[in-house]
Amino acid sequence: MIEIDGSFGSGGGQILRTACALSAVTKKPCRVFNIRRGREKPGLMPQHLLGIQTLSQLCNGRLEGDSLGSEEIKFYPGEINGSRTSINVKFETAGSITLVLQTLIPPALFAPVPIKVVFDGGATDTFFSPTMNYFQHVFSKILTQITENCSPPVEINVIRRGYYPEGGAKVEVKVYPSKLKNLNLTERGSFKKILVFSGASNSLKNKKVAERQIAGVREILGKLKLPTEEKVEYYDTRCPGSQICLVAEFENTVIGTDNLGKL
């Protein structure tokens, strides 16, 4: 069994997510201790717990210590044999959907059949995690580069956005079986353009929040005279919120940055 100290580095939840995902891929059991020791409230929070429990379902595995606040778990992965082609993930909080996807996508790529994951609740855009736009236009683009598929290995359908603190998102994700290849990002190639995605709740439309976020971008990028494409969106959400994501497209790769609006 591989043993991993969760207090390493920043001591956050990423160690847990990555360890369990790679455990499922390699089929090697792991023990993660000192989980989130570097955080104000150490141990498993609802989002982390839901992520590893869903992963265990996906790969017919077994968990020990999977309870709220637990600072140690043992994960015994099983086979991803295609017996489970659809998984429903029910969030009772505004936990991050994109962070749970970081746990589920790597092993799902090795499934013999496509895997559909349906999220009911949770947040598409929340603090300390990638926004959904970043996940779609940066993470997924890089993921496509390391697979031999002709088409992207992950399809994301955002039915309803969700912000902190109420969440309430609805997202459907489909992951296709993929063969992986080496990735070389040492040469980004020539610059193409910058994509700007600015979105907010419908309740903030009269205040033109999404447009004002874009105006801030123009103030900086306008001086550089870079080719830019902008997209403004408003959504029906349970609570007010906004997000912005900038993606720089290059010949060989993409880079991005994002942030949330604060009321």
From TrEMBL:
Gene Ontology molecular function terms on file: RNA-3'-phosphate cyclase activity
Q: Where is the RNA 3'-terminal phosphate cyclase insert domain?
A: 186-262
GO terms classed as biological process = RNA processing
Reaction(s) catalysed by this chain, per the record, are: a 3'-end 3'-phospho-ribonucleotide-RNA + ATP = a 3'-end 2',3'-cyclophospho-ribonucleotide-RNA + AMP + diphosphate
Q: What is this protein called?
A: RNA 3'-terminal-phosphate cyclase (ATP)
List the Pfam families: RTC, RTC_insert
Please report the stretch or stretches of sequence annotated as the RNA 3'-terminal phosphate cyclase domain: 9-184
Instruction: Please state the Enzyme Commission number of this protein.
Output: 6.5.1.4
